[in-house]
């Protein structure tokens, strides 16, 4: 496997320098900028991150600038990207970096809040020139195909491939790391749709030689999402709308949103003006929401009451509630 992987590096690097996408985080790279982009890219698609990355870096160009902002401001700048614990972690990481400087070792980077093995590998390779692999599901996919490796593509494969990559890591650490990601994003696509004709590994790939590229990766069976039926209340009283800060242990903990109930009698809150259903997919849960727009009978004290303008400028409302913003 090692010899095959070594042979695969030069064509991969040549392909990457000819075909890589022009992505904003590939310009003016600094350790801090890579920390921001990699955290954004953890659970959000490249297309959705592009603009948000540029806006975020222009609002907070350095770790010190980010550390000086309030948590509410940072949440607002993150609005719509989802998985908000990333933003809180980034804010905490910025405080550490502002105080102590950016870490210079894998262990130091890995110890920053919100940074796991993959993200630490990416930051080390791209920003620090360290030979530290970043192996996610995409890298596992391209390598199981290259090797025609039919073992279950789970966390053990990530560990194996990471150790193997470390042995052959070339001096162009950042290029190599991003080239692996890029091959998975542009050529070696999931779901049986690889573009093998354009692949720099066409003559090397064992799955392709066997005509079996779509057999890999061999995935473990997925667990289904739990479905939760919930009621969302958009209560209006005068010019204000009811919000709640979501509790620890709930989905979207710490975020502001419309009140959500498993069971509720919407008519008990006032006159129902409109009803709309929507669904939202979290990682492990699917919300099937019925949203009621209600003219509230009084300003129920258990809620926080905010104007539309305050909601737009001060509170980051998670995308899960997007469908009901039209009630405002
Ligand atoms: N996904 C995660 N990190 C990435 C990067 N640096 N470029 C493109 N896609 C990515």
What can you see in these coordinates?
The protein has 328 residues and is α+β, with helices and mostly antiparallel strands. The chain folds into 2 domains: 2-215, Orthogonal Bundle (Endonuclease III, domain 1); 226-327, Nucleoside Triphosphate Pyrophosphohydrolase, CATH 3.90.79.10. The protein has helices at 2-19, 31-41, 46-59, 63-68, 71-78, 85-100, 106-110, 117-128, 137-147, 155-168, 173-186, 206-209, 308-313; strands at residues 226-237, 240-245, 256-257, 260-261, 270-281, 285-296, 304-307. Strand 1 (226-237) and strand 2 form a beta hairpin. Helix 2 packs antiparallel against helix 6 (85-100), helix 8 (117-128) crosses helix 11 and helix 9 (137-147) packs across helix 11. The chain is globular and about 75 Å long. The relative contact order is 0.11. The model has no long low-confidence stretch (mean pLDDT 95). Adenine is lined by residues 23, 38, 41, 46, 122, 178, 181.
Percent helix, as a range, is 40-55%
- Mean pLDDT score: 95
Q: What's the number of extended β-strand segments?
A: 7
What ranges have pLDDT less than 50 throughout 5 or more consecutive residues?
none
Number of domains: 2
Classify the fold: give the CATH topology of the largest domain: Endonuclease III, domain 1
Question: Outline of this structure?
Answer:
The chain has helices spanning 2-19, 31-41, 46-59, 63-68, 71-78, 85-100, 106-110, 117-128, 137-147, 155-168, 173-186, 206-209, 308-313; strands at residues 226-237, 240-245, 256-257, 260-261, 270-281, 285-296, 304-307.
């Amino acid at each position: 496997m090692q010899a095959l992987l070594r042979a695969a590096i030069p064509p991969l690097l040549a392909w990457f320098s000819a075909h890589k996408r022009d992505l904003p985080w590939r310009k003016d790279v600094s350790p801090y900028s890579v920390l921001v982009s990699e955290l954004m890219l953890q659970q959000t698609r490249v297309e959705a991150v592009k603009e948000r990355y540029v806006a975020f870096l222009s609002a907070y160009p350095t770790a010190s600038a980010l550390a000086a902002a309030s948590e509410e401001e940072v949440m607002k700048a993150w609005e719509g990207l989802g998985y908000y614990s990333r933003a809180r972690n980034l804010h905490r990481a910025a405080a550490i970096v502002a105080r102590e400087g950016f870490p210079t070792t894998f262990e130091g980077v890995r110890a920053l809040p919100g940074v796991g093995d993959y993200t630490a590998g990416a930051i080390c390779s791209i920003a620090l020139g360290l030979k530290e692999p970043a192996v996610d599901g995409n890298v596992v996919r391209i390598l199981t195909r290259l090797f025609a490796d039919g073992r279950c593509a789970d966390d053990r494969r990530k560990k194996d491939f990471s150790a193997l990559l470390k042995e052959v890591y070339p001096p162009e650490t950042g290029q190599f790391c991003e080239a692996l990601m890029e091959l998975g994003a542009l050529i070696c696509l999931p779901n049986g749709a690889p573009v093998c004709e354009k692949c720099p590994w066409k003559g090397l790939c064992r799955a392709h030689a066997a005509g079996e590229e779509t057999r890999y990766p061999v995935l473990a069976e997925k667990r289904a999402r739990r479905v939760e039926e919930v009621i969302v209340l958009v209560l209006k009283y005068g010019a204000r709308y009811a919000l709640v800060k979501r509790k620890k242990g709930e989905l979207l903990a710490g975020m502001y949103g419309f009140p959500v109930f498993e069971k509720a009698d919407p008519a008990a809150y006032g006159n129902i003006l409109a009803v709309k259903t929507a669904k939202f997919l979290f990682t492990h849960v699917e919300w099937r929401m019925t949203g009621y727009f209600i003219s509230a009978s009084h300003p129920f004290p258990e809620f926080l009451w905010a104007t539309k303008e305050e909601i737009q400028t001060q509170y980051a409302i998670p995308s899960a509630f997007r469908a009901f913003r039209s009630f405002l």
